[in-house]
Every structure is written in C-alpha cells, then in structure tokens.
Design goal:
Number of helices: 2
Shape: elongated
Mean pLDDT: 95
Length: 84
C-alpha cells in the first residue's frame, strides 16, 4: 500500500500540537490561500481555485476535519494522540 503522505504529515503535526498544548489542528480553506492572488513581482497567481481546493479542502474533509465558523478546517489535537 502506498504512503498517504497527506495523512502522515497531518498526523505528525497533530501529535506535536497535542503534546505542546494546542487544542486544535487547523487547515486553511483553499479559498483563503494567499497563492490564489497575484503576489508582488509576479504576473499570475501560483494556484487556481480548483488547485487550492484539491490541495487543502479535499484532504481536510477526507481526514475528518470539520469546517469552523471562519470557513477553515479544524480537528481536535486529542484525536491524534498516540500512546508512547
């Protein structure tokens, strides 16, 4: 079975967050990504809206994150706990 690198990376961040006292882990909503906009010195954005949704929103939903009141994605850090 291939490595699910998105799940792996989010799991590591979740474990660190829980061990360092954070209550939640957040993933920015694709529409909130700064790379959707042309940056200074650039002529076009780095991401389309569809690319941002594919990179942020779909993985967040797939990994069990829920939309918060600000539209970003959140999951309790406690759900990532691993017994040492």
């Amino acid at each position: 079975m291939p490595l699910d690198w998105q799940e792996c990376m989010v799991s590591v961040v979740g474990q660190v967050a829980g061990r360092t006292g954070f209550a939640n882990v957040g993933i920015q909503r694709g529409e909130h990504n700064k790379w959707l906009h042309v940056q200074p010195g650039e002529t076009e954005p780095h991401l389309t809206l569809e690319q941002a949704r594919a990179a942020y929103d779909r993985p967040a939903a797939r990994l069990g994150f829920k939309e918060g009141g600000d539209g970003d994605w959140y999951k309790p850090a406690s759900t990532f706990a691993v017994d040492a």
